[in-house]
Amino acid sequence: MAQDSKPGTMRVSGWRQYRALLLKDLRQEVRTREMLTSMVVYALLVLTIYGAALAQVGDRVEVVSFAGGLLWALIIFTSLLGLNRSFSHETESGCLEGILLAPVDRAVVFLAKATSNLIFLASVELITVPLFFLFFLSGAELASTTPMMLLPLVVGTIGVAGVGTLLSTMTIDTRGRDVLLAILFIPVVFPLLYACVSATSVALMGVEGTFGTFWTSLALAGAYDVIMIAAAWGLYEFVVDA
Which residues cross the membrane (predicted)? Predict the structure, then answer.
């Protein structure tokens, strides 16, 4: 009986650890609003730069053809800012050392931090994606398939949060961590970015005969998420204890 009850106890303990760590991050952000505020302001600044760069584009239909790339560039650069700040509270207050000294499974720490990063990034996207459409695509004739872009947005955001959590942990104690994270993050996430841009562009343009490309790109993005997040989960113990 003792052996049968032990696995169940460990599962409950793991869930409680995950919930406690996740709630800690969410409460900290609700109290300070530092991460979300900086990400939203940065995204608005990028949109302003986009507006200046595209001010001379007269035909908005042309914008639709590369809107997917613009949108994902906005998401990637905004997520970099958030990932750089995701461990700032833990390092400044010494909270991370306390977490690592506690009997907490490192995989649980990864899942909790990746989930909080996912929630924060998704919250920013809920604000910036509608603004992107309002500023740059409000006068364009969008295809009926445009709502399907939500699929690559969801899959891509999950991958960015998972991989970014691992890489931000690797650079947490390095000098120039902002630059180092970008150097590591962009090449690693490039396959996911390429697939998501392709799927998003197809959804926005709605060209007949290209939806094979949409589903292929979405499948590649999903496979990337599964492989890379599983690898990040398995490697996190070695990274965080290094």
Answer: 36-57, 63-83, 118-137, 149-167, 179-207, 213-236
